[in-house]
Design goal:
It comes from Bugula neritina. The chain has no helices and 24 strands. It is mostly beta strands and 256 residues long.
Length: 256
């Protein structure tokens, strides 16, 4: 039986199995009753008719952070998405590297952005805004509020005290009204003495009238002037009485 792999009168010449075979992007290698296509770089398949792409292996971090662009033969380039860099876009850009968070804020790096965790008293995208702690009016009684960082100070109106000026100072506590006169506080920071009929003055310190029963005496504080004028008005049913006056230990008397 004649072998199909040889030809010629004496069957000594091998049959070229590559005859009529198109290996497209490759070279045909003759075999024994068969052939093999040896493909050029970038191609595959029995007849080297399938073009390979370097992007088939997803070199750009599984195409999650970049777009892969194939360039024959078997070359590629990665176009990184925002927030990534590197040949295969596998490196996350650290948006916190420039220390964008101000005034002691902590920076948290995210994809293509950052988030600042601000320290107490600060707000804003980069913690650049001092929170107005006086905004809600914490100081009572129209007292002045001074904003600080994460705190405030109250400058109290007259008559008020306490951190928030919410404590009323008792102006009557020191008993400014004399002779047991009644002290009242009409509004914070003020007081008023309610004097009885025989007293007058801001503190009821002036005796304006007195009832004298029997033998009674009145005394005045020492005076520096050598000449003084004292005026008395009497309302009495008696027709007359004696009035004694002592000045510098010298006594005087007269009928009134």
């Amino acid at each position: 039986m004649k072998s199909l792999s040889f030809q010629g009168d004496d069957c000594t010449r091998s049959v070229d199995d590559c005859t009529g075979v198109d290996c497209n992007h490759g070279t045909c290698i003759d075999g024994h009753l068969n052939f093999t296509c040896q493909c050029d770089t970038g191609y595959t398949g029995v007849e080297c008719d399938i073009e390979l792409s370097a992007c088939d292996w997803m070199p750009c971090v599984a195409n999650q952070t970049a777009e892969c662009i194939a360039t024959p033969p078997l070359q590629y380039s990665c176009v990184c998405l925002l927030g990534y860099h590197g040949n295969t876009c596998d490196l996350d850009i650290d948006e916190c590297s420039s220390s964008p968070c101000r005034n002691g804020g902590n920076c948290f790096n995210l994809v293509d952005r950052f988030v600042c965790q601000c320290a107490t008293g600060w707000t804003g995208a980069t913690c650049q805004v001092n929170i107005d702690d006086c905004k809600d009016g914490p100081c009572a009684g129209n007292s002045q509020c001074v904003d600080k960082v994460g705190n405030y100070t109250c400058i109290c109106s007259p008559g008020l005290t306490g951190n928030d000026c919410d404590v009323d100072i008792d102006e009557c506590a020191d008993r400014p009204c004399m002779f047991d006169s009644v002290c009242v506080e009409p509004q914070p920071g003020t007081y008023e003495c309610l004097c009885p009929d025989h007293l007058t003055g801001l503190h009821c310190e002036i005796l304006s009238a007195a009832t004298l029963l029997g033998s009674t005496h009145l005394s005045c504080p020492p005076l520096s002037d050598d000449i003084i004028s004292i005026e008395f008005k009497f309302n009495t049913p008696l027709s007359s009485t004696l009035l004694y006056l002592t000045v510098n230990e010298e006594s005087y008397q007269g009928m009134v």
